[in-house]
Amino acid sequence: MSKRAFGMLLLALMLAAVTALAGCGTGGSDKKLVRIGEVTRSLFYAPQYVAIEKGFFEEEGLEIELTTTPGGDKTMTALLSNSIDVALVGSETSIYVYQQGADDPVINFAQLTQTDGTFLVAREKTESFDWNSLKGSVFLGQRKGGMPQMAGEFAMKKHGIDPHNDMELIQNVDFANIAPAFSSGTGDYVQLFEPTASIFEKEGRGYVVASFGTESGHLPYTVFMTKESFIDKNAETVQAFTDAVYKAQQWVDENSAEAIADVVLPYFENVDRDILVSSLDRYKQQGSFATDPIVDVDEWNNLLDVITSAGELQERTEHDVLVNTDFAEKAIAEGEK
């Protein structure tokens, strides 16, 4: 073989190697990367982890980069600064951004959870809980203006409890430190997500006496959202994303807590499987996981009522301003074919 022929062959091999390497990145060149920022790592978001682990996003031609961005403020900052493409966070954050006069509003396009995900946990075990027991107690609450706290206050007011006058309300503890603070002796009652609530029950550190999710009704509690400009430029990607979410929602609805636990276990390696199962079953029983991605008008209006009751709403932002149901409706229609 001549030097020229050998050189041409070597060049061809090098080009082939470069092409192969280019296709061996995380997800490959044919996959569209979508960066998700989740407000916290929570069993409450099980359908999201199912969508990743069962390959539903991959089936839709998407590669997912999942980051936990602790807190609504940090998650929204990451979205607005283009550090992430899609935020998984409470719908109230999109309203707050809009009320601040954002030129590029944040649009809710796919709902994941449809109730509050917290439970009222008492330090002492009781056979029959009476909401009036909260009067005169020390209550370890959540962040002011956040959905857990607002939904909790909304539920308490339904039962004639004024959370700011009938009890000592503690709200200066960071989200990550609320459970440890209660465990170390702060408060008579606390508001906790799963699986922490079930862990506390198992260890005798607290007892679930009521569900704020059941008490506050259906809400667009945790929703996938993105900037309007991202939707305008990436409508096909948003549709593919929503299609994958819907597949996961249907799978979660049709499968047992045990089956779901086995899928999401890699995201909660420090939690016993039996705790995952009981927590998932609790969420399934109260209908916390949305079975489709649509944020409907009634849910949105209930959200506005909850925020108004908490004194955090400047004016009501109507459903059609910050919600786009086109992608969810198309996902459902395609799924029924």
From TrEMBL:
Signal peptide positions (record): 1-22
UniProt subcellular location: Periplasm
Keywords assigned: Signal
Gene3D superfamilies on file: Periplasmic binding protein-like II (3.40.190.10)
Top-rank taxon: Bacteria
Gene Ontology cellular component annotations, sorted alphabetically: periplasmic space
Family: Belongs to the bacterial solute-binding protein SsuA/TauA family.
Identification of the protein by name: ABC transporter substrate-binding protein
Species of origin: Paenibacillus soyae
